Amino acid sequence: MTPGNRRIRAVPEVTAVSESTEPPSPPRGRVVSAFRTAAGLALVVSTSIGVAWAARRHVLGSPRFAIMHVEVTGNDRLPGESVVAESGLALGSNVFAADLDLARSRILADPWVADAQLVRRLPGTILVRVTERRPAAIVAMDETYLASADGEPFKRLEPGDPMDFPLVTGLRAEALAEDRPGALRTVQRAIDLAAEFEHGALAKRAPLQEVHLGADGSFTIIVGHAGMELVLGPPPFRRKLDQAARVVAELERRGAKADAIMLDNDTRPERVVVRMR
User: Fold this and answer.
1) Virtual CA dihedral for 187, 191, 194, 196, nearest 10 degrees?
2) What is the bridge-based pairing of β-strands 258-262 and 228-233?
3) How do residues 95-116 score in pLDDT, each as one tens digit?
4) C-alpha–C-alpha distance, residues 274 and 259, integer Å
5) Strand 135-140 versus strand 258-262 pairing type
6) Are residue 152 and residue 243 in the same domain, yes or no?
7) CA–CA gap between residue 95 and residue 81 (Å, rounded)
8) What is the DSSP annotation of 148-195?
9) Same structural domain for residues 84 and 140?
10) Are 87 and 177 found together in one domain?
11) Where are the alpha helices (DSSP H) in the chain?
12) Residue 14 lies in a domain
């Protein structure tokens, strides 16, 4: 084949296209839709805020939610009027604006109150539930206190306070400051000892006058109108109290009276020393 007769293939034409770095513009309809959504959300939020503000203004200003009653329950010694006065809650003020935490702290400042719970009962009532402390002993230290059954001296003894409780002496105020839990356990043990004596055979014959705490952890009780001492030493006490009752019965049979009975020899529990009058 001669060069003149050689076939020549056609080369396709190539058009160069330059790449663009800019993102394609969103359709106009999508932009309008997004704007409308944002505007709607803003309207909803502003409307909600307005409604909430109006509702708050209503409940804080409406006479329907004024405090009309403060009901006190659980109180035995404290008059209800005193509890209300201590709380600082004012009749006629708004029930939602009342600071119940502050009112509770004011009530708890009263030494007779062990606990207090306050709740709102709409539209216009505050319920106050108090738990009062109940004294179980009179504890004489530098001053004289009422103590609860757990040994806690919670109130200075004042005129008008109840007095028909066991008298506990010998507790030092320094011991209470240095080891409060230990001191409270000792007072509680003294209260338990008094209760144990009251249920024993000797109580009717020689009423309990005092429980004395020794610095060494020993216990002495003073019984009878003449003030006979029963030196018991450390606990347990049941056997010692029964033994004291038998000794006193024998002394009475003989027409004798004791000034003190020592039952604190724990190494020889059968040994009892009697100091006669």
Assistant:
1) -120
2) parallel
3) 999 999 999 999 999 999 999 9
4) 8
5) unpaired
6) yes
7) 18
8) ETTS-EEEE--TTS---S-EEE---HHHHHH-HHHHHHHHHHHHHHHH
9) no
10) no
11) 28-61, 80-87, 100-108, 173-178, 180-198, 238-254
12) no
Residue 74 in contact with residue 132, Cβ under 8 Å?
yes
- Which tokens go with 46? 């502003």
Which residue is it, tokens 């109290």? 241
- pLDDT band of residue 15 (cuts 50, 70, 90) is very low
Residues 111 and 152 grouped into a single domain: no
Looking at residue 157, its pLDDT comes to 97
Question: Do 187 and 87 fall within a single domain?
Answer: no
SS3 of residue 78 by DSSP: coil
Tokens 């009179």 belong to residue: 138
Of residues 179, 221, 171, 180, the one with CA closest to residue 200: 221
The pTM of this model reads 0.75
86 and 206 assigned to the same domain: no
In angstroms, what CA-CA distances link 231 with 51, 216, 220?
77, 13, 4
Give the CATH number of the domain where residue 226 resides. Answer: 3.40.50.11690
Residues written for the chain: 277
Same domain, 236 and 254: yes
Q: Is there a single domain that holds both residue 83 and residue 174?
A: no
Tally of domains in the chain: 2
pLDDT at 63: 74
Is residue 17 very low, low, confident or very high in pLDDT (cuts 50, 70, 90)?
A: very low
CATH number of the CATH domain containing 82: 3.10.20.310
Domain end: 88, 108, 132, which one?
132
Task: Burial-class residue 224 by CB neighbours within 10 Å (0-12, 13-18, 19+).
Answer: middle
pLDDT in tens, 57-82: 555 557 788 999 999 999 999 999 99
Q: Which domain does 114 fall in, by range?
A: 66-132
